[in-house]
Amino acid sequence: MEEDLASQDIDPVEMLVRIGKHHGKSAVFTSSLGLEDMVITDMIARNNIDVEIATIDTGRLPDETYQLMEKVRLEMGVDIKVYFPERKEVEDMINSRGINLFYHSIDNRHFCCNVRKVNPLKNILRNRSVWITGIRGEQTVARKNSRKVEFVRDHNVLKVNPLLDWTRDEIWSYVKIHRVPYNILFDKNYKSIGCQPCTRAVGKDEDERSGRWWWEDGIKECGLHLTGEVSTGLNLGNKSGGIID
Ligand code: SF4
Question: Which of 23, 174, 198, 203 is disulfide-compatible with 27, CB 3.0–4.6 A?
């Protein structure tokens, strides 16, 4: 039976259940252990949804993120598969541009994000049919233009963003009600958490992404969610992941 999610307004849990049923481990949820990612992890765990949960250890994460990763495994009983960057690529980058290259130029910053994040993501998404993410439209202009179900040409995969229209308050409310573990940096004025050298706490009224690469102007993305995407009516019951208009 083919399940049509083109209406875009299906409940997040229902979306995840359908994906698990039709795609199993061919679907992957990529988590950076942010608040939204913890909500989706909780939904997957509570409903025994059979999709892979993956994360990227960039090698530069804050210790608090590693502590949370361990909590997810020990307290939630959830296995997160950890992917790493290619050792040779990291070595060559550091030996040619320095350990903290990202502070020196935007090109260096993008290069580091490519080596440590985007290239491992390509490995994660190879031969997948569905890519589940925790992005929300409120976070950036680019994300605002996303849809709950869209095709990502660069990775040849259906990208599903179940929480796209959730507000930050709704995320916090879910976390509190369901007692979902979260990164303790959120209690220290962090609003978005990535690599340790590229993330800092922000003021109460500051933008959610303002603590990421704070020395730069412009788009606050690492490239993971900036691929050529095509929004369309899609069908998640198709194992091949093809577009059905
Ligand atoms: S966030 Fe910073 S440390 Fe992490 S991959 Fe990007 S540039 Fe490198």
Answer: 23
